[in-house]
Amino acid sequence: VQTTLKFTYREKYPDETPLYEIVSQENLDDNDVTDIIKLLEQQAEENLGMVMIFTLVSAVQEKLNEIVDQIKTRREEEKKQKEKEAEEEEKQRFHGTPVTIENFLNWKAKFDAELLEIKRKKMKEEEQAGKNKLSGKQLFEMDHNLDTSDIQFLEE
């Protein structure tokens, strides 16, 4: 922040307050400018009868330092707030449906139905592609008479 002050001495200075104005300012809100002017008025009234320009400038300088500290504090609070919001958002993203026995059984039934459907589609595709040959394991699983067929063959 920055401000330029212009002081004009009156004839009866230091028994009268000098004229002062803010010629230019950077990064100050209207409220801050108003506070600086009030501070100048207060300090000028308190220091009547004494040389006061240095005192007025020092008071404004302290006020500007306070304003800088407030801006830093505000920025830090905004940064912390953003981090907190991001953390909450992250927590919400990983928060899901709690698993209960009923939820799990419903999911398992749907999952098994989907797997069965996938297997059926795969079998149909294989049949259409001419891959009617079954593996040995599939043959034994489908026809239990094959379990004893080798024994009968050896007996003969």
Automatic annotation (TrEMBL):
Pfam families, A to Z: DFRP_C, RWD
Biased composition (Basic and acidic residues): 75-93
Designated name of the protein: RWDD1 protein
Source domain of life: Eukaryota
PROSITE patterns: RWD
SUPFAM superfamilies cross-referenced by the UniProt entry: UBC-like (SSF54495)
InterPro entries registered for this protein in UniProt: GIR2-like (IPR040213), RWD_dom (IPR006575), UBQ-conjugating_enzyme/RWD (IPR016135), ZC3H15/TMA46_C (IPR032378)
Disordered as annotated region, ranges: 75-95
RWD domain boundaries: 1-67
